[in-house]
Design goal:
With 320 residues, the chain is α/β, with parallel strands linked by helices. It folds into 2 domains: 195 residues, NAD(P)-binding Rossmann-like Domain (Rossmann fold, 3-Layer(aba) Sandwich), CATH 3.40.50.720; 109 residues, UDP-galactose 4-epimerase, domain 1, CATH 3.90.25. It is built from 12 helices and 16 strands. The strands form 5 sheets. A 6-stranded parallel sheet has the order 3-2-1-4-5-8. Helix 2 links the parallel strand 2 and strand 3. It starts with a strand and ends with a helix. 48% of the residues are buried. The protein binds serine (SER). Serine (SER) binds next to loops.
Length: 320
């Protein structure tokens, strides 16, 4: 990776991944692609930024040629819950955008990273220790586009030799940019609510176990996979990766260790609950560990300490 384009650089993952890529590969070598929301602060000041709409192949091609891009991180997506209210948009961005990236990559010799998700599972998938290779019949547009994206990316690798790689991210917990409209967002919102008001109303029921990961590990997974020796990869699109699995009761109890007055109640949102019920409780990520050395750094305890510290500082400064 010498010259890198991040499409979706102001999103939850993009805003942190872009800065980490700039640290590792040089600020001027990492282009922050954005659509409607312009980058601000360090993201804007630390390197080049270009307007890119994933659904416009010419815009992507122009930027790839201008900066001699060799690696595209294609992060543009509509998350699962919002995707159910705008399925056509979710497909256009998820698959139309991916197809554009793959075609530009084929013509210009780029590698492509595209996140898949726990949302690719559902409809008959074994939910405990979900295997790397198993039944994938999701019932959300998010999941349908993720499975189709995995297949399309493998197709471009096998048919045209485009170096496509991907991980199936679990819920990602972070404190820089909020996620928008996902089923796992509760596990981010709970920390902000705990710090700001000491109370949280959870949209998923007690006992709903889902895989989760702290953002530094999500960023590490994306970079480590793109740096991995291709000869060792038996899979490409896409690898199960996870760091922890918990339900709302467990994360709430962990927060209570630090904020004893924290209280949580439930107001279950049926759309989110149905989605969560169809997703793995815990994935088996042995293939990622064996093929490219995946290993998470953060667990629920260490992540909770860090989240409460960072969000607490922001709150004390009046930033949130
Ligand atoms: N965080 C995503 C969502 O909840 C899952 O990949 O939609």
């Amino acid at each position: 990776m010498k010259n890198i384009l991040v499409i979706g650089s102001v999103g939850q993952i993009g805003s942190e991944l872009t800065l980490e890529l700039r640290k590792r590969y040089g600020s001027s070598n990492v282009v922050a692609g954005f659509r409607s929301t312009k980058p601000t602060g360090e993201l804007l000041e630390s390197g080049p930024a270009e307007m890119i709409d994933a659904t416009d192949a010419k815009l992507i091609a122009d930027v790839v040629k201008k900066y001699k891009i060799d690696t595209i991180y294609n992060l543009a997506a509509i998350l699962s819950a919002v995707g159910e209210s705008k399925p056509q948009v979710a497909w256009n961005i998820g698959i139309g955008g991916l197809m554009n990236c793959l075609e530009v990559a084929r013509e210009n010799g780029c590698a492509v990273f595209t996140p898949s998700s726990i949302g690719a599972f559902g409809g008959g998938t074994p939910l405990d220790n979900t295997p790397q290779d198993t039944i994938m019949r999701p019932q959300t547009m998010y999941g349908v586009s993720k499975v189709a994206g995995e297949l399309l990316s493998d197709y471009y690798y096998k048919r045209f030799g485009v170096d496509t790689r991907s991980v199936r991210y679990p819920g990602i917990i972070s404190n820089v940019t909020l996620p928008g409209g996902g089923t796992t967002d509760y596990a981010v919102e709970i920390y902000y609510a705990a710090v700001k008001t000491g109370r949280f109303t959870c949209p998923l029921s007690a006992g709903t176990f889902l895989d989760m990961m702290y953002m530094p590990d999500a960023v590490k997974a994306a970079i480590d996979l793109m740096e991995a020796d291709p000869d060792k990869l038996k899979h490409r699109n896409s690898f199960n990766v996870t760091a922890m699995s918990f339900d709302p009761e467990i994360i709430s109890a962990e927060i209570k260790k630090h904020l004893p007055n924290f209280e949580m109640d439930y107001d279950v949102e049926p759309v989110k609950q149905a989605i969560a019920d169809s997703w793995p409780n815990k994935m088996d990520d042995t293939a990622a560990r064996q093929e490219w050395g995946w290993e998470p750094t953060w667990n629920l305890e260490t992540m909770t300490q860090d989240m409460l510290k960072v969000i607490g500082e922001k709150h004390a400064k009046g930033l949130i």
